[in-house]
Write a structure and sequence with these properties.
By secondary structure, this protein is mainly α. It has 6 helices and 3 strands, in the order H-E-E-H-E-H-H-H-H. Keywords: GTPase activation, Metal-binding, Zinc, Zinc-finger.
Length: about 160
């Protein structure tokens, strides 16, 4: 029987079953990504066991760094919980496409000036914010991504 022809309770059960299968599939894909050794530490500060991710940047991050990413806005960094949020296929696909923390970091950190380094797991919030803003919001990134340097993705100026 097709979903379109199903009625009432049967249709509801079929939809619930589909949602459970889809959610389980996405959860497994996300778990597989977390098994990569480079994804077992925060992409920004190297804190162990990150429980958050920036779906559009493609990195796993810790609780302390996720606040910095959230403050940038979802047009720059869409933060989701690895365990609490339901992930769409597109969000998972984006994470897989990037290839994990080390792939993303090799792109974003390639243009760091000499002497500029990541904050450690015990860094202050101010140090984290400075690093996160420098890494993901400077106009140089818009040039790298082929966008206009003067504005962000949705016409907002980059946060500096």
């Amino acid at each position: 029987m097709t979903l379109r022809r199903a009625s009432g309770r049967l249709r509801t059960r079929m939809l619930q079953g589909f949602c459970i299968l889809k959610c389980n599939s996405n959860a497994k894909r996300l778990k597989d990504l977390l098994l990569n050794s480079d994804n077992r530490v925060c992409a920004d500060c190297d804190a162990p066991d990150p429980k958050w991710a920036s779906a559009n940047i493609g990195v796993f991050i810790c609780l302390k760094c996720c606040g910095g990413h959230r403050s940038l806005g979802t047009h720059i960094s869409k933060v989701l919980s690895v365990t609490l949020d339901d992930w769409s296929d597109d969000e998972i696909d984006s994470m897989v496409e990037v290839g994990g923390n080390s792939s993303a970091n090799s792109i974003y950190e390639a243009y760091f000036p000499e002497g500029f380094s990541k904050p450690g797991p015990e860094a202050s919030n101010e140090e984290r914010m400075k690093f996160i803003r420098y890494t993901f919001c400077l106009p140089r990134l818009y040039t790298i991504n082929g966008s206009d340097c003067s504005t962000g993705k949705y016409g907002h100026p980059p946060v500096v």
